[in-house]
Amino acid sequence: MAMSGGVDSSVSAALLQQQGYNVEAIYMKNWDTRDERGVCPSEEDWKDVQSVCQHLQIPCQQVDFVKDYWHQVFQDTLDTYAAGLTPNPDVLCNQHIKFGSLLNKIPSDSWLATGHYCRTDGEGRLLRGRERNKDQSYYLSTVPHQALQRAIFPLGNITDKQHVKQLASDLGLTKVASKKESYGICFVGQHRKFASFLEQYIDQPCGPAVDLETGRVIGEHRGLFGYTIGQAARIHHGPHKWFVAQKDLTSNTLVCVPGSKHPQLFHRACTATNWTWIHTFRPTKINVMAQVRYRQDPVPALLDVDDHQRHRITFQEPVRAIASGQQVVVWLDDWCLGSGLIDSVTPAY
């Protein structure tokens, strides 16, 4: 059982134990807290894991994946941001670390359980979790079918996150039941802006921020890596609130538009590379439900794969703020078919 010190993985371990599994806990150390530029409460989380395991009377161990994480997730994330794109480190972590390095460390006749809100079926297909607000199949959309066949998701059929917290309380796991839920990347910390963290690793100059409609300079950006399409530009000029429409690396220019609903922030299609089909089902043209962000509602789209294996997703209605580098994930009903990295977008207007 991959345990993080949070309520989801703690309750997952208890549920497996109740179902008669022989459970052993593994805590993954992915970040070196000796790095002054990173902040990660790993020591406190490790203590919580040990406390839960002692309460459940199951063995636990800490495994060091710091080097793996740096080379396979963190460095790739930095390079992608430096190139002006918008990566998703959590997708990379699940693919390369949790269901890569970690899965390879455990015996081949064992299962790997995690606290993700998603499901698999008898054929090893990845399905959405019953708790739609917490469904995390998006983050597992690049995990290969072979790995999913060895995966167990005890919370997949849970329909309410509050039920998980109540289970934790009922089991006597009072500390993790009341523990604040963590969001974002652990080493950045929850009280620090991500752009400020990236500044410590990416050396890019400031540059002009311009109005897309007039070409006039309206302010200055602090480095293009710190912005993504559709977000507030943090530029104070005139009566408008400005939003990022484009990033021009050649001229080091941030291109902005007034208002969060400006037509230039909407796209009707995108193409994707590095595509992963999780299962053997690999259609060339199919109507799907698609997401370009974890918190986006799934929307109807047409996925079309041409003879050169270029994947094009055309949305039934325009989608706001699609950024190159993001993961576009597709489903057939609840079945996650796979995903790819967005490499180009088509404006809606």
Which terms summarize this structure?
349 residues; alpha+beta; Rossmann fold; SH3 type barrels; Elongation Factor Tu (Ef-tu), domain 3; 3 domains; 6-stranded antiparallel β-barrel; 5-stranded mixed β-sheet; 8 helices; 17 strands; 24% helix; 30% strand
Count of DSSP-assigned helices: 8
Q: What is the terminal separation in angstroms? A: 48 Å
The CATH superfamily of the largest domain turns out to be HUPs
Strand content: 25-35%
Number of spatially distinct domains: 3
Q: What does the radius of gyration come to?
A: 21 Å
- According to DSSP, the number of beta strands is 17
Give the overall form.
globular
Instruction: Output the CATH class name of the largest domain.
Output: Alpha Beta
Mean pLDDT: 91
Q: In the CATH classification, which architecture of the largest domain applies? A: 3-Layer(aba) Sandwich
How would a crystallographer describe the biggest sheet?
6 strands, antiparallel, barrel
- The name CATH uses for the topology of the largest domain is Rossmann fold
Overall structural class, as computed from helix and strand content, comes to alpha+beta
Contiguous uncertain segments of 5+ residues? none
String of helices and strands: HEHEHHEEEHEHHHEEEEEEEEEEE
Helical fraction equals 10-25%
In short:
The chain is of the alpha+beta class and 349 residues long.
Tell me what you see in this structure.
With 349 residues, the protein is of the alpha+beta class. The protein has three domains: 7-188, 3-Layer(aba) Sandwich (Rossmann fold); 204-260, Roll (SH3 type barrels); 264-347, Translation factors (Elongation Factor Tu (Ef-tu), domain 3), CATH 2.40.30.10. The protein contains eight helices and 17 strands. It has helices at residues 7-18, 42-56, 66-82, 89-105, 145-148, 161-170, 174-177, 194-198; strands at 25-29, 60-64, 112-113, 118-120, 126-128, 151-152, 207-211, 217-221, 232-237, 240-248, 253-258, 266-277, 285-291, 299-305, 311-320, 327-332, 335-347. The strands form five sheets. The protein has a six-stranded antiparallel beta barrel with strand order 12-15-14-13-16-17. Strands 8-7-11-10-9 form a five-stranded mixed beta sheet, with no helix packed on it. A two-stranded parallel ribbon has the order 1-2. Helix 3 (66-82) runs antiparallel to helix 4 (89-105). The termini are far apart. The mean pLDDT is 91. GO terms for molecular function: ATP binding; tRNA binding; tRNA-uridine 2-sulfurtransferase activity. Belongs to the MnmA/TRMU family. Residues 268-342 form the tRNA-specific 2-thiouridylase MnmA-like C-terminal domain.
